[in-house]
Amino acid sequence: MPRNIWSGAISFGLVTVPISVASATEDHSIRFHQYHLEDMGRVRVRKYCEIENREIDQSEIGKGYQLTKDQVIPISDEELRDLPLPTAKAIEIVAFVPLGSVDPLKIGEGYYLAPSGQVAAKPYKLLRMALDRSSKVAVAKYAWSGRERLGLLRVREDAIVLHAMRWPDEIRSPEELLPPPVELSDDEIDGALALMDSMTRDDLEGEEFQDTYTQALEQIIEAKREDREPPKLQERESEPGQIVDLMAALNASVEKARASRGEDADVHEMPKKKTAKKTTAKKTTKKAAAKKTSGHRPRSA
């Protein structure tokens, strides 16, 4: 059972839905501590007070805002929790929008919203079914951890999920990172679409979507625990030369995708390069050859 991290309500017009919040994701990453290599003693970060020059306990630590070099304004957790905001105790829905209109870059961590008690069951189900039937998501405001946030509410199976969102001014413009202008042919675009077709699937299940990094770390830790040599990285077979032609790379990629999935029937054929220019070149060559032959014709006596 996931731990509740916040309790409050969803404010949906004049409808109130008491809810509790739990994380919708789990982190299975392997984490490391820092150790002194000479004797493997644990290295820890000590917290010192700069004025008293002594180590202090966590219970002595609080938050503060540095107003000037010499003046700090203390802010308690109670003051943050009791901020005079309508969103301090509720997730306030402010709009409904199509999911496709939300930039995925704005969407962050996900949390399950669970109804709190029997009184919340009916309004919770009402909001869930309304979101589901409308094919829309709700945009809301709420205040957690000392700041007001923007959120997105959507339906996942029979639950309502809240995604933390970034404010519009927190998204950087990609303009300065864009490549210089280039030209693409229709054949190259069609080739990319054919490659996408060959890689399209209905779900995200399978070996391709497993955390192989964590698996490799587990193998190393297990091998060292058993005092044996850790497994070595298997070198990939070197390919005969680098493909620099874009169409050739697309063709090779489609063939590789077909071979790995064993699916040929559902994959569109790659477009063939247009030969109009080659044909024109041949005609030009023939004309040039004819002129050249004509220019060297022997004069009559």
Automatic annotation (TrEMBL):
Disordered: annotated span: 223-301
Q: Does the keyword Electron transport apply?
A: no
Task: Give residue spans, biased composition: Basic and acidic residues.
Answer: 223-239, 255-272
**What binding partners and quaternary form does the record give?**
Homodimer. Interacts with LigD.
**Molecular function, one GO term:** double-stranded DNA binding
Asked if DNA-binding is a keyword of the record, the answer is yes
In what residue span(s) does the Ku domain sit? 53-182
Its domain of life reads Bacteria
NCBIfam families, alphabetized = Ku_bact
Q: Which organism is it from?
A: Streptomyces violarus
Q: Name one GO biological process term.
A: DNA recombination
Record protein name field: Non-homologous end joining protein Ku
- Pfam families documented for this protein: Ku
Q: Which family does it belong to?
A: Belongs to the prokaryotic Ku family.
Compositional bias per record (Basic residues), positions renumbered to this chain: 273-301
Which UniProt keywords are listed?
DNA damage, DNA recombination, DNA repair, DNA-binding
Per the entry, what this protein does is: With LigD forms a non-homologous end joining (NHEJ) DNA repair enzyme, which repairs dsDNA breaks with reduced fidelity. Binds linear dsDNA with 5'- and 3'- overhangs but not closed circular dsDNA nor ssDNA. Recruits and stimulates the ligase activity of LigD.
